Amino acid sequence: MAAVAGRTAWSSDPIRGVRLEGLDVWRTMLTIAGVALHATMLRPDLPLYVGISIVSEAFRMGTFVLISGLLAGISLARHPTHVWFKRRLAQIGIPMAFGWFVLCPFMGVVLARMLPAARIGAGWPPFDWHHIWFLVGLLLYTPVACAVDRFAARSALFDELDHAGLHGATIRGLYYVVLPLATFWIMALVAAIVLHTTPPSLIRMMSQWKLILGYLPLFVTGLTIARSAAVRGAIAERLWPAVAILVAMLLLYAAWYGWLCFTPWGRDHAALQGVVRAVAMAWCPPAVGALVLRSAAAGGVSSPLFRTLGDASMTMYIVHYPILFAVNAAFAWVALPEYGEYFAAFVIGLAGSYAVHRYLVCRSRVWGLLLNGRMATSSAPRATGFVAT
């Protein structure tokens, strides 16, 4: 463990004000993956689009939650809890409110006025929060993070973890087995409650609660990783469990989607598809999170491109979705090759969302606050590690 944990200053002391260069590549890749996924919105259910959706849901948002918890833990250690809490409410709450009450109604207008009825589908209430559910989740995680931080300060929890002499295998067992099991069963419970208590018109929207609540343990785990050198070292020390889990999930998907779902037995047990996807959504984020942690611990300097896109990830997350909504609604009225439309939508969504960051957020304090949660301060440096995408 010591060989890995002592390789960089961040590994042994993440509280110092250094940029986590290893996260820039991951933030960029996850942001681009989100654009690739949402470029399939309002389009036919072609095998490529279904495949992109299945792969993305397995790890993308859960990994973002884990990274958010990691950076929240670092930030909480640098600032008083009450200061961090107030700042976080503004950093997350203002973009969330702007997205939900301005951008989401815009998408409702697109659905109602611009899109042919055949392309709309069912389950889109006019006040749907669409992708803003993630910011709602981060806002709800904020008091939890403060409670964990205060409890840890009073009980010396993280110091106890570092001096308890826990074997690395024990920590990895908690991380790769207990954490995914907690996530899985919370998701299953919330999904069942939503299914039996929610009107059909709200199912699409309210089903996101299984992710918000199911990924809460991931957020707390990320916070713990940030504050405990023993936990960090144990996870980053050996990556074979993460690789084994990802290979197992790949084989599980190949078995179900490549064979079982086409058999009479698979058609008779179609509900198992939801279980397969839930298993992947519970086990893949910790596995990918271990790779992220190893990248962050490895240090090094990321390229200017990854730094730039990493800093723009919050803005791009918020605005790429309505951009793609409008673009795909416009494409619904023209006769272009299907995959040509998809590629064009992807490029427009990626370039358009970055342009909003570059030419609005970076040049205006108002837009910086509305779309990036950027607080206007004259003395404090901008937080380069803030992740809310």
TrEMBL record:
Pfam families: Acyl_transf_3 (PF01757). The chain crosses the membrane at residues 25-42, 48-77, 89-112, 132-152, 173-195, 207-226, 238-259, 271-293, 314-336, 342-361. InterPro entries: Acyl_transf_3_dom, Glucan_succinyl_AcylTrfase. Residues 21-357 form the Acyltransferase domain. GO terms for molecular function: acyltransferase activity, transferring groups other than amino-acyl groups; hydrolase activity. Keywords: Acyltransferase, Hydrolase, Membrane, Transferase, Transmembrane, Transmembrane helix. This is Peptidoglycan/LPS O-acetylase OafA/YrhL, contains acyltransferase and SGNH-hydrolase domains.
